[in-house]
Amino acid sequence: MLTDEQIFDILDGCADAEVLQQHTYLLANSGVYQQYFKELESIHLDLAQMPLEHTSVSFTENVLAATPVAKPKVISVKKKDWSRKLPYIFFGTMVAILVVSVIIAIFYQPTSATVQQEPNILIKELSDLFSKYFTQLGILLNLIVMLALFDKKILRPYFKQRRISLG
Q1: What is the pLDDT of residue 163?
Q2: What's this model's pTM, rounded to 2 decimal places?
Q3: What is the pLDDT of residues 75-96, one digit of tens each?
């Protein structure tokens, strides 16, 4: 028996000679094949008469009609108690650091009554090194540590808690 593709090739007129010979033999000898061929021929004619947009639209309508309508899921995110206070904690800490640094600057102002001595060259170089590079390196390391802690303690739990599901 011929496959559906071969039968549709026969109906389209693009089948080779061997398939046509087998088709004529099956039409003459097999009643089941004759009935099957007539069914496929009627389907072929219906498809040929139908415009292409109509088949696409009807397919879409059939698929949409067959899919069940799902209820939308409501996701509620419960914030932790401390997360509401986080901006106040941050700004309070910044203000406290600013006040402490201003107080330290006021009490430890250099006075002109100090006696100046010629410092040792080695001590001068070391103090310059510590005052420039060590301070910059310390600030950079503190910033990296603070960012890592912020990521680990605040950002990761927040985004793990907010799981979004499409439904």
Answers
A1: 66
A2: 0.33
A3: 776 766 767 788 888 899 999 9
Backbone φ and ψ of 118, nearest 5°: -75, 115
Dist CA 57 CA 60 (whole Å) = 5
Residue 116: per-residue pLDDT: 63
Contact between 69 and 137 under an 8 Å Cβ cutoff? The reply is: no
CB-based contacts of 158: which residues, under 8 Å, 6+ apart?
83
Angle of CA points 97, 102, 107, to nearest 5° = 125
Dig out the tokens for 9 from the structure.
């090739």
Structure tokens at 148: 């890592």
- Give the CA distances from residue 128 to residues 110, 132, 136, in Å, rounded to whole numbers and listed in that order: 18, 6, 12
Phi, psi (degrees; rounded to nearest 5) at 156: -60, -50
**Residues 6+ away with beta carbon under 8 Å from 77:** 161, 162
CA distances 4 to 23, 41, 76, Å, are 12, 11, 54
Cβ–Cβ < 8 Å for 39, 29:
no
Q: In this predicted structure, what is the pLDDT of residue 110?
A: 63
Using CA atoms, how far residue 151 sits from 81, 87, 159, in Å, is 19, 16, 10
Q: What is the mean pLDDT of the chain?
A: 80
Token pair of 84, please? 């509401």
